[in-house]
Amino acid sequence: MQIRQWNKILIPYEQAVEELKVKFKGIRTELREINEYSPIEFVTGRVKTVSSILEKAKKYNVPDDQIEEKIEDIAGIRIMCQFVDDIYSVIELIRQRDEKDLKVLYEKDYLHNEKESGYRSYHVIIEYPVQTAYGQKKILAEIQIRTLAMNFWATIEHSLHYKYKENIPERIRERLKKAAEAAHRLDEEMWEIRDEVINAQKLFEVKSNTVSSI
Ligand code: 0O2
Question: Which terms does the record give in the GO molecular function aspect (predicted)?
Fold first, then answer.
């Protein structure tokens, strides 16, 4: 398949990513507006590059005409949370959405089953209906939910893959595993003082709202 054809295929995926970002950012804004705690800290999203899609298809022996049904993370949304238990609140928010909006297909729990690399995150695979110029198209998308610490680790580790591909030297691999454990400990420590932090943040927001309305 040619790049031009791919660009056309990817249009609904671009739209889905934009829409999903708006929806999850909207939840955050809404909760903050009413001075409620938001389990969502920030949201990002991306459409996989064509080269990365083709690489994955090759890795899993997926023929061109099955790529859209077999590769579930062409559209990807990432939701970052402050604390580990916020991840579960976000998962609930996703599960409770109307099926006409998005439909959860299945979930991958890399929080309890961390990957060999040290990767931790929670993935929810969804079916999402996009209204295109040619009617509705249902696409697959992956929502990754993680803490800020997990995201820090994954971002650094991911960047090393560009340099080393699958061949990250053992010495660095070991360091990364230790860093993953440290990130995990950081999440646990932060969780211990969660209530204290949330109260302080509420006070800070009330104060800045008061100052800005003067
Ligand atoms: P990008 O640049 O985000 O597209 P696979 O994709 O082959 O690893 P699978 O089962 O198809 O495995 O999907 P899975 O496990 O849901 O992983 C898909 C995505 O999760 C990855 O996409 C990463 O974003 C993230 N991920 C999974 N494992 C790791 C890991 O060990 N380290 C980091 N940093 N991220 C991971 P892509 O395609 O790798 O990257």
Answer: ATP binding; kinase activity
ipTM of the prediction:
0.91
Domain 3-213: CATH class, spelled out: alpha beta
Quote the DSSP letter at residue 74.
S
For 192, the 3-state DSSP assignment is: helix
In our burial notation (b when 16+ CB lie closer than 10 A, e otherwise), range 118-146 reads bbbbbbbbbebbbeeeeeebebbbbbbbb
Question: Could you tell me the residue ranges of all domains in the chain?
Answer: 3-213
Q: With a threshold of 0.80, does the pTM exceed it?
A: yes
Mutate to test the pocket of ligand 1, among 73, 80, 122 (most ligand atoms within 8 A of CB): 73
Q: Where are the alpha helices (DSSP H) in 34-135?
A: 50-59, 67-70, 84-95
Tokens of 5: 């054809």
